[in-house]
Amino acid sequence: MKHIFARLAILPLLLCCTWSMAGDKHAAHSHGLGNLELVVQGGTVKASFEIPMESLLGFEHLPRTPAQKKAMADLQAAVTQASYFINLPAAADCQTKSLQVNADMFNGKKSEHSDLDAELEFSCSQPSALKQLEIPLFKKHPRLSSLKVDMVSPKGQSSVTLKAKDPVLRW
Ligand SMILES: [Zn+2]
To answer: First CA to last CA across the chain, in angstroms?
Structure first.
């Protein structure tokens, strides 16, 4: 009897750890392909982007020419706007709660590859209107061809690949 209980106690532990390993995404860096983790819960939307700098700038070394310096300065200014990353339905009446952007290149650091990491959180007063969102990044950056999305929505957990030709995520 004791033996059975001991085995039952181990089961949730195994489930927990297998699940967390699967969820522990450390995405491979691949040019043209970004990653997005999205959680929609009630009126809260949380998004975490990881996008190769090459897809945003066309280069991944520190800027050298005046044109490259301007491109990076423009990008650095653009990413301070949440609407640069996500457009939520107007009817959902969302406010940006936080936006944090990190990129080694913005700090003058460069390894072989570089990503832009962005964490966003929105709070929406009309959650019933939250049924989709648009990713405007595609229009601004033709080098970005797809975005792998892992999401948790009121409909459950899912993974989809969003393409530039239809940059709207629906749930
Ligand atoms: Zn790269």
So the answer is: 46
